[in-house]
Specification:
Elements lengths: L5 H8 L9 E10 L2 E9 L17 E7 L7 E8 L6 E3 L5 E5 L2 E10 L4 E8 L7 E2 L13 E4 L5 E5 L32 E5 L6 E7 L2 E2 L17 E8 L2 E7 L6 E6 L6 E8 L9 E6 L2 E8 L11 E7 L18
Parallel strand pairs: 14-18
Antiparallel strand pairs: 1-2, 2-3, 3-4, 5-7, 6-7, 7-8, 8-9, 10-11, 11-12, 12-13, 15-16, 16-17, 17-18, 19-20, 20-21
């Protein structure tokens, strides 16, 4: 009989699926009361085809996962919210996030409304593992997908969001939905993510949404043709040594990259890659500090043999350099 030490147990779970009894993706990780809570989307297996509109991602509910510490067994707390209990939603509960404020836990999530347009909703709970009760209507002025909730040191909550193609972000360049909306030309600035300040009671936007500028080292906006660096979807915000780190997926080139800035609303300067491409088309992540170390939560399709809508959530340690830059992770190389 082989008895694993605590460190060996931790390493054995790193870069391995957190759970395999259901397919999970798009993990938003947070630390509440000394425990890690992961808010993923829930992939449902089917035999439909993949397409650029994302019709294969037919998620209907959310489960909350927890770990007592890094390397601990991951626990599924069951269904926290189902689409049938969201009055305004028609289809597709995609990547969510959560935030704690004034004694309540708020699940922020996207779904298509009854007309087929993506909106953002809020559901409220007393426990970080749920269940959550959805507000009767979506957030007024919201659109697109991939909300990421960030509470700054002053207690203000910002929601970052937006995704191209199936996420419809390119159709809102004027601020109003245009069914014929297209991405900018190759030599034009790329579509930018959005940010909105939440109201104090977390019922809606206090201001925004506004575009979040991502610039190159020369201060120029990244171009639509710069597919290795420009924004596509899956924003995440965290702070490290006083700086704001906006990270996101490049979509078509499948990188997780990041940019840094001095304010939560930007502008941000592109800094580099966090993770090289994983198996599967999408890449989506979150970043947390736990026990004095930093961790990247992400998903891939390795467990399902590359089926895009059968993903599993994983994690790996993330390392900073002295200058605040992040060391690039190769997901299938042995971790440090």
């Amino acid at each position: 009989m082989i008895v694993q030490t605590g460190k060996e147990k931790e390493m054995s779970r790193e870069r391995e699926p957190l759970v395999t009894h259901i397919y999970t993706a798009d993990p938003s990780a947070h630390v509440y009361d000394g425990k890690i809570y992961i808010y993923p989307s829930h992939d449902i297996p089917h035999d439909g085809e993949d397409n650029d509109n994302g019709d294969e991602y037919q998620m209907q509910d959310y489960h909350v996962l927890t770990m007592d510490h890094i390397g601990a067994e991951c626990v599924d707390h069951g269904e926290a919210l189902h689409i049938k209990d969201v009055p305004w939603a028609g289809d597709q509960l995609w990547a969510p996030d959560a935030v704690y404020k004034d004694g309540k836990y708020y699940l922020v999530f996207p779904a298509r409304d009854k007309e087929g347009n993506f909106r953002l909703g809020i559901a409220v709970g007393d426990d970080p593992a749920g269940p959550f009760t959805a507000q009767p209507d979506y957030i007024e002025g919201s659109y697109s997908i991939d909300p990421a909730a960030f509470m700054d040191d002053d207690g203000k909550v910002y929601i970052y969001f937006g995704g191209l193609w199936g996420g419809q972000l390119e159709k809102y360049q004027s601020g109003v939905f245009d069914p014929e909306g297209k991405e900018p030309g190759p030599d034009e600035p790329a579509v930018l993510p959005r940010c909105a300040l939440m109201s104090g009671d977390m019922t809606g936007f206090e201001s925004g949404p506004v575009e979040v500028e991502i610039r190159d080292e020369n201060g120029e906006l990244l171009l639509a043709s710069d597919e290795e660096r420009r924004y596509f979807e899956a924003p995440w915000m965290h702070k490290y040594k006083g700086k704001y780190y906006l990270s996101y997926s490049t979509g078509t080139t499948h990188y997780i990259v990041y940019a840094t800035g001095e304010r939560p609303t930007g502008p941000f300067t592109y800094r580099g890659r966090i993770m090289e491409p994983v198996i599967g088309w999408t890449t989506h992540h979150s970043i947390i500090e736990f026990g004095g170390k930093w961790y990247l939560f992400y998903h891939d399709c390795e467990y399902s043999g590359g089926i895009n809508h059968r993903r599993t959530v994983k994690y790996t340690e993330l390392h900073y350099n002295e200058d605040g830059s992040i060391q690039t992770i190769s997901p299938y190389e042995k971790s440090k």
